[in-house]
Design goal:
The longest helix is centred in the N-terminal third of the chain and has 19 residues, at 132-150. By secondary structure, this protein is α+β, with helices and mostly antiparallel strands. The chain has 2 domains: 12-224, Metalloenzyme, LuxS/M16 peptidase-like (Cytochrome Bc1 Complex, Chain A, domain 1); 246-425, Metalloenzyme, LuxS/M16 peptidase-like (Cytochrome Bc1 Complex, Chain A, domain 1). Helix content is 45%, strand content 19%. Strands 1-2-6-3-5-4 form a 6-stranded mixed beta sheet, with helices on both faces. It has a 5-stranded mixed beta sheet with strand order 7-11-8-10-9, with helices on both faces. It has 17 helices and 11 strands. Helix 4 packs parallel to helix 9 and helix 10 crosses helix 13 (351-368).
């Protein structure tokens, strides 16, 4: 009981602190989103870009990820490899990531050195030079990443699933691209993409820490209020091809079976995302989740591991059931999953499981946001995708989810065509 009271107090304090969020629009279109955390002595500076593989085509697929590598390799003020050395010498941690919908760069650093973060990231997104020698040096690094992905026993499955789910859209392709594309990238190609998509109007600057707002605003104006001699590029997403039930089996030299049952789901920009997160937690949240209780934690386990959950993107989503087991020529795990799906679509979910899922999700969010960089990450993702409520009202929205909400969205997903794919042992 004492632990529950402590958790409840933390939730109340956390929700109240959300009102400290401040925003400011720079003249060039960059949006500054600021959160004051006075109890922390570090500041996380993150620059989120509204571009990822969603803005690529077949011929330049992989350019967003490759460009993310290249902005570390030389800017107007910094020589290749100087950026990492500088940030580390000032006690900072630095990284970047590319997704289908966005690219972001972050530096988390002691607050007294925060200006370094503003300077470095602004150089990377406005002043990268793309030295031709560095481009050629980086190609084998990225190609090695591509080749490592092929070593995964489930690689072919996930590629096939994306191709089926999102055929005729940029989402059908992998973020990392292809070997041929990477080898084709040159300075001219990179600069063209950089000019159009690394545009101020595509940028959200997130600052979380004990750096004062006036100082954060001053540094944002000093380093990020720059212009580019280009127009922001807007690309048509396309319309996914109509999906039919499909099954595909891959064979590899492996010791167990991998199976995925996948349905199309709403994008993360729709309100159904909260019911889908609660459903995911019911199905897969911990050792005593519904899927574990029905398929794994039984006298004769049907699987070695099992997961069921939602993944949302800006323009689409998926709901996936995935399990591994020793290979057997029967459909027992699938049959059990089908029974669970039927119960969910009929609304046969206990209030207890829903409430437990809500508490777990809210608690996870509280503890995740204890870390400055994680909170900045949540803010950046929400504001970049245009779903500010996902950060501002998360616990309130999760708390409002009902069994009826879950039943409604489950019927909209699970009564539609599916993709069933497996990777099984060769022998």
């Amino acid at each position: 009981m004492k632990k529950l009271l402590i958790l409840f107090t933390i939730l109340i304090m956390w929700e109240g602190s959300l009102f400290a969020l401040e925003t400011y629009n720079l003249d060039n279109g960059v949006k500054l989103v600021y959160k004051h955390t006075p109890d922390k002595k570090v500041t996380s500076v993150q620059l989120w870009m509204k571009t990822g593989s969603i803005n690529e085509n077949k011929d330049n697929n992989g350019i967003s990820h490759f460009l993310e590598h290249m902005v570390f390799k030389g800017t107007k003020s910094f020589a290749p490899d100087e950026i990492d050395t500088l940030v580390e010498s000032k006690g900072g941690q630095m990284n970047a990531a590319t997704s289908k919908d966005y690219t972001f760069y972050y530096i988390t650093i002691p607050t007294f050195n925060a200006e370094i973060a503003f300077h470095v990231i602004s150089e990377m997104v406005f002043e990268a030079t793309f030295p031709e020698k560095e481009i050629e040096k980086e190609k084998p690094v990225v190609i090695q990443e591509i080749m490592r992905k092929h070593d995964s026993p489930t690689h072919d499955m996930w590629v096939y699933i994306s191709e089926q789910l999102f055929e005729n859209t940029p989402y059908e392709r992998e973020i990392i691209g292809t070997v041929d594309n990477v080898n084709s990238f040159d300075k001219k190609t990179l600069l063209k993409y950089y000019s159009g998509f690394y545009h101020p109007e595509n940028m959200t600057l997130v600052v979380v820490g004990d750096l004062g707002f006036d100082k954060a605003k001053k540094l944002a104006l000093q380093y990020f209020n720059k212009t580019k001699n280009s127009q922001v590029i807007n690309k048509d997403f396309g319309k996914p091809t109509k999906l039919s039930n499909v099954e595909k089996v891959f064979k590899k030299d492996i010791s167990q079976e991998y199976t995925a049952l996948v349905f199309r789901a709403p994008p993360i920009t729709e309100k159904d995302r909260y019911a889908l997160e609660v459903l995911t937690e019911i199905l897969s949240g911990g050792e005593y989740s519904l899927l574990n209780e029905k398929l794994k934690n039984i006298e004769k386990p049907l699987v070695n591991m099992v997961f069921g959950g939602y993944m949302g993107l800006k323009k689409g989503g998926s709901f996936t059931f995935f399990y591994t087991r020793q290979f057997e020529k029967n459909r027992k795990p699938l049959e059990e999953i089908e029974k669970i799906i039927q119960d969910i679509t009929e609304g046969n979910i206990s209030e207890k499981s829903v409430e437990r899922a809500k508490k777990r999700l809210k608690a996870q969010t509280v503890f995740q946001r204890e870390k400055t960089s994680s909170e900045a990450n949540d803010i950046g993702m929400a504001y970049t995708l245009g779903i500010e409520d996902y950060y501002l009202e998360y616990t309130e929205k999760i708390e409002s989810v009902t069994i009826k909400d879950i039943k409604t969205v489950a019927n909209s997903i699970f009564n539609q065509p599916h993709i069933l794919t497996k990777t099984i042992p060769t022998n």
